[in-house]
Amino acid sequence: MNILIVDDEKLAVEVIKNMIQWESYGIEEVYTAYSMKQAVEAMERHQISILLCDIEMPKGSGLEVAAWIQEQKLDIKIIFLTSHAVFQYASQAIKYGVSDYLLKPVVPEELEQAIQLASEKIQLHKQIEQNEKYASYWNSGKTIMQQDFWKSYLSGGKEYKNLQSMSKKIDIDAEPGTVYYPILLYWSRKKNRGTVWDDEIIEFSIRNIVSEVLFGKMQNGNFVLLRNNCILAVYPMQKETRLWMREKCKMMLDRCGEYLSFCNISCYVTGDTPFEKLKEAVDMLIETEEEDILKENRVIMAQQDKEVFQYKKPDMEPWVNGLFDKSQVKVLKEIQKYLEEVGVVYHADSKALGQFQHDFLQELYIVLERKGIYAHSVLSSPQMLESFNRASRSIADMVNWVSDLSDSLVQYDYKKEKTPDMIKEIKVFIEENSGEEISRNDLAAKVFLHPDYLSRIFKEQMGMSLSDFIIQVRIDKAKVLLQKTDDRISDISAKVGYPNTAYFTKLFKRATGMTPKEFRKA
């Protein structure tokens, strides 16, 4: 792999070039450029894998370089450098699929982490290309029939006699007493660990690893995709002991951790199971997986009799308030510590996580109402809705939800800091739509603020209320129409948003000391 460092400041390029041991990350050559033109020339001459580029450059910005890479359809991982944490830069960086976004001056540890992540993405992409060569294996007729057999049996869709007849044709032993070892694997992506792999490639890789450890070769017919992120492996037992199989499962997780470091993978087992009781055992595995809130790379033995955890609401008020007073990192650590304690020590389940989430939301609503913030302005984005729906699946998902909530509140504060811009936006909207019906609620919704809060900040900024400003704009527009047109006063009244001419005349006289007719004559 080769890297290209681009910055219009030559000293900055030299500092970064000598900052870390590039060869430790598989970097063979380090190229440099001091403008967009030089960067483009370097990428045309050399095979560049990673671009480390400043955003603010006078002769073509880093964003323009990223756009050029996208247009050329080059497979280059981009890491942006900038001196300013500008939200617009971050949003455009996401648009161009940028691998990372670092603030100057760059800290060696942050740069190393970014290079490591970019390097992993490149290696993963190479593995994808290799895996795709073998993807056609899934179209094997026998494999599909074996998978259909297991799906039918586990869903209770076919009678036992029909299944036995079917099993003999596809090399599955369905005789009573035949021992199987069902293994349920659940995987999820780690937060902030990007990967170019889609779900199908990840599932293919997990099956590949499990097959290699259990069967010594690809054995796709013994796998069933129960739902997204949840795979069942049905292993025909011979003389292996339960302890030996658990060691095999640990080996599978270690191998998955090596090749799929961007995922958490958990393994759920029950032990030796006769074929006729396999459905019952799999149902117990599914229940165990759904109740497990840790989901952190471990082997879990399903149990029929489990102690029920009695959930008690913790003191959440300091956590919720902390999300508003710049203590987000501390809050996330405390919540994670609490959840891990109830998960590990007290064996809390997904039901307890759901109760925790509802209580947390209740506390949040109280604070939002006190601050005059509509809940939908911070909770209704697609990312927040997806995060909310996943939160009770695991501790990691719950912490991710609180983290996403924290980010949403930060973005809301960012918008609030742009109050002058929002007031300008409101003024322009009123001026352009003065002839239409304008309500305070409509204006507040436009900038995602509570109507009371918008009214307060508008008066602070403008020295007059929203309603008075709307009247002023309409009266000013009416003055122009009265002076420059021969339109009837009733028509002018309607054009400036007052269908009732008498009411318009009353407001006009209050503002100017004259009726519209007197104003026109004057």
From TrEMBL:
<dbReference type="InterPro" id="IPR018060">
    <property type="entry name" value="HTH_AraC"/>
</dbReference>
<dbReference type="InterPro" id="IPR001789">
    <property type="entry name" value="Sig_transdc_resp-reg_receiver"/>
</dbReference>
<dbReference type="GO" id="GO:0043565">
    <property type="term" value="F:sequence-specific DNA binding"/>
</dbReference>
<dbReference type="GO" id="GO:0003700">
    <property type="term" value="F:DNA-binding transcription factor activity"/>
</dbReference>
<dbReference type="Pfam" id="PF00072">
    <property type="entry name" value="Response_reg"/>
</dbReference>
<dbReference type="Pfam" id="PF12833">
    <property type="entry name" value="HTH_18"/>
</dbReference>
<feature type="modified residue" description="4-aspartylphosphate">
    <location>
        <position position="54"/>
    </location>
</feature>
<keyword id="KW-0597">Phosphoprotein</keyword>
<feature type="domain" description="Response regulatory">
    <location>
        <begin position="2"/>
        <end position="119"/>
    </location>
</feature>
<dbReference type="InterPro" id="IPR009057">
    <property type="entry name" value="Homeodomain-like_sf"/>
</dbReference>
<dbReference type="InterPro" id="IPR018062">
    <property type="entry name" value="HTH_AraC-typ_CS"/>
</dbReference>
<feature type="domain" description="HTH araC/xylS-type">
    <location>
        <begin position="424"/>
        <end position="522"/>
    </location>
</feature>
<keyword id="KW-0238">DNA-binding</keyword>
<dbReference type="InterPro" id="IPR020449">
    <property type="entry name" value="Tscrpt_reg_AraC-type_HTH"/>
</dbReference>
<keyword id="KW-0804">Transcription</keyword>
<keyword id="KW-0805">Transcription regulation</keyword>
<dbReference type="GO" id="GO:0000160">
    <property type="term" value="P:phosphorelay signal transduction system"/>
</dbReference>
<dbReference type="InterPro" id="IPR011006">
    <property type="entry name" value="CheY-like_superfamily"/>
</dbReference>
<protein>
    <recommendedName>
        <fullName>Stage 0 sporulation protein A homolog</fullName>
    </recommendedName>
</protein>
<comment type="function">
    <text>May play the central regulatory role in sporulation. It may be an element of the effector pathway responsible for the activation of sporulation genes in response to nutritional stress. Spo0A may act in concert with spo0H (a sigma factor) to control the expression of some genes that are critical to the sporulation process.</text>
</comment>
